[in-house]
Structures are given as structure tokens and as C-alpha cells.
Write a structure and sequence with these properties.
This protein is mainly alpha-helical. The chain has 2 domains: 213 residues, no CATH class; 226 residues, no CATH class. The protein contains 18 helices and no strands. Helix 2 packs parallel to helix 11. The protein is globular, with a radius of gyration of 22 Å.
Length: 479
Amino acid sequence: MKGLRKLLGNSFALLLNRLTQSITTFILAASIARMLGAYELGQYMLAFSFYYVFMTLASQGFKTLFTRELAQNPIETPSYLVSGTFLQFLFSVIAYAVMVLVVYLLPYNQNTSIVCYILGLAIIPFSLSNVTEAIFQAEEKMQLIAVSTVPVYIVRLIAIVWAMNLKYDITTVSAIMVASECLIFCIEWCLVTQFVKFQWRLNWKFMWDTTKASGSFIVIEGISVLGYRLQVFILSLLGGELVVGLYGAVLQLMQPFQIISHSVVLAVFPKMSKAIDSGKDSQRQITQITIEILLMVALPLLLGITFFGKDLLILLYQEQSFGEAKFALNVFAIGLISSSFIRPLSYLLVANGFEKVNLWQVFITTILDCLISIVLVSQYKLNGAAITVIFTDYVALLIYYIESCRRLFTLNFMATVSRPLIIGASMLPVFIALKNLSLDIILVLIISTIIYFLFIGILGVYTVYHSNDEWAKLLLKRK
């Protein structure tokens, strides 16, 4: 029970962090659209995409490697803190310089380029904070991440909305984003030094060995996020900032699921890495439960978007024209199912040292993404981008599933999807009834959410007291 409480506590901490980040980002995007306009939202989304791609290239590969290695060798934590932070600084500065060069060479107007330059500066502090967060994750002290980030996210949103009310433009918004990331890094550094004893000494051999070991992770994460953000860049060149703004508006409605997915899998990843010594059955149990949890969220969310997606877009952005993105939103919602499998299986392969499978997956899907999107986006703009993303997502799912079965074990598919299907089938008549009643969208959200958690509670009680499967064993396990 102690192990379960710790897992749930870490999951909640990461969920709180991601939830706050996503909610504030969600409100920020809506506020920019309402107060500055769809064009400025497109500028922000484009700049954020450049920042996110180059930040990922500079740091996310290191973070995945650091988390795995520190979970298995915690004695190396001081070296990772000092030398790892310096290594991250070097890579982040190089990444920012390359980003500036790329933006300069592309045919954007001067204002859009300036926004990209300013927001791109956040690459450096965010990359540095990834080192401390990797230590928090490896030590299973995820609550410290929430303590460092949640208050800053809230203050940042308030400051940005206040600035826009004072008629400051999107460049000021970008500058506030950079300042907030610097503050987060300072807070996390202060917290990590409370339990990590280190010396101000650079271990050059460690940095060289770490750079070599992180090569696959950097390429995997970099190509993956490039594939994810590729549509923004193609849309910006073929459709302009306004279409990018609509694309960003649609993506924001996918954020609730991405928060939950990211938080749950990151919380489970250290246990996946440690479960290698316990055998494949233990890893299979962790993986199946993780996928099952995500599907329980994905299926009802998919149904809800199908029935009320247009109303949600109009509610959020207070503009009827955003309702034109309904088709793209419905297409993106189909990808919630594939995402429920992709993220857990991806981290499962990494935990077992098969990160090259991830590399091949992102390499294949990025090439497909690029080739297909050029054709579809040029013809269908936003809708073409959505179709391309979903197609490549399911190609990725196929690759991960085949390789996981071939290299590790076969999932018990029916046991994994049975409870999510029950929840989805239970919510379907609820959504049909709410649609027929033509209620206000806010009331629909409240009623459907209450009923959803009611169904989840009933299923959870039944699982604990009337089942002997993996969920029951996990929930009733005592140490």
C-alpha cells in the first residue's frame, strides 16, 4: 500500500504540474485570441513551436537518459547535477543560436521573427531546469516539481493577461514567458541542493560519456517533436499565421488528455525501469494498467468532442469563425486512442534499452508526415494537417505494438480494453441525451463530468471487491 500511495502521490504531483501548465496555457491561448486576435495567436504558436523543437533537441533526450540512469544509479546524482547542468547549458546555447539562424533564413515578416527570437530564449532556462526535474523524478520526489512550477505558472498567466489589458503586444507576452522559466530554474536549483551534496567540479569524462550515450535519445526526442510540430511550420509557410492560429486553437482542446497521459507515464517510468529485474510479468502488469487508465480517459473524451466539439471551440474563443475547425478537431480526437498506447509502449522500450526502436519509429513517421502533409496541407490547409497527424500516429502505434510484442511480451489486449469500453459505452447514452436536450455547453460539461466520475467510482469499487485481476492485486497489495 505504501508503494501505491507513493505512485499515486507522484502521479498527482506531476498531474498537478501538467494540469496547471496546460490550464494556464489554455487560458493564455484563448486570451491572446480574444484580446489580440487570431493572427497574433498564430505568431505565438509559431514562435512556441520553434522554441519547443529546439528546446527538445537541447534537453529532452538528456532528461530521459538522466531519469533512467539516476533511477538505477542514484549515487551518480552529484555528477549529474553539476556536470549535467553545465552540459545542458552548452547544448541549449547552441540550440538557440541555430534556431535564430533558421528563423532568419525563413520568409517570415520582421514582427513574427522578433517574437520567435524572444520566446526562443526560454530554451536556456527550461533546458537547465530539466536536469533538476530528472533528479526529482529519479528520486521519486515529483512533488518538488509541482512546488517549483505551479505558483509560477499562475503568476505568469496573471502577468500576461494584465500586460495585454494594458495594450502590450505579443513580444511582451514572450518576454514574460522567458522570465518565468528563469524563475522556475532558480527555485528548482534551490530545492535540489537541499538533499544533493555536490562539489563545484566539472567531470569532463562524465560529460563526454553522457553526450555519447544521449545521442539516440536526442535524435528520438528531436525527430519526434519535429514531427509533432511539423504541421505548424508547414501551415505557416503555406497558409500563414492566421491558419496556424486556428490549428493552435484546435490543439488546445487536446491538452487535457496530453496532461494526464504525460503525468501518468512519467510517474510510472522509474518503476518500469526498476521492474526489469522483476521479470516481464511485472512490466506487463505496469504497462497494461497504464494503457488502461489512459483509455478510460481517452474514450469518453473522444465521444464528448464528437458531440460537442464545435460548441467547445466557440465557448473557448468567443468567436463563431473558430467553429469552422470542427472537422479538424474531430479528426484529432481519434488520435486519443493511439496516444493511449504510444506513450506507455515508447517508455517501456526505453526502460528496456530498446530506444533505437523509438528512433526508427520517429524517423519513419516524420518522413511520412513531411511527404503527406505537403500534399494535403497545400490542398486542404487545416483539415489536411489533421488527417496527416492522425495517419502517422497510427503508423507509430503499429510499430510500437509489433516491436513490444517481438522484443518483450504480448499484451493481454482484451483485459486492457474491457474496462475502458465499459466506461465509453456507459457515457455514450449520456452524451446522446445531453445533445438532444440542447443544454448550454457549460451545463453539459458539468453534468457529463459528474456522471463520468460516478461511473469511474462504481467501476473502481467493483474491481477492488469483486475481481482478482491485476488492478485488484495492485490496489490491495501491502508491504
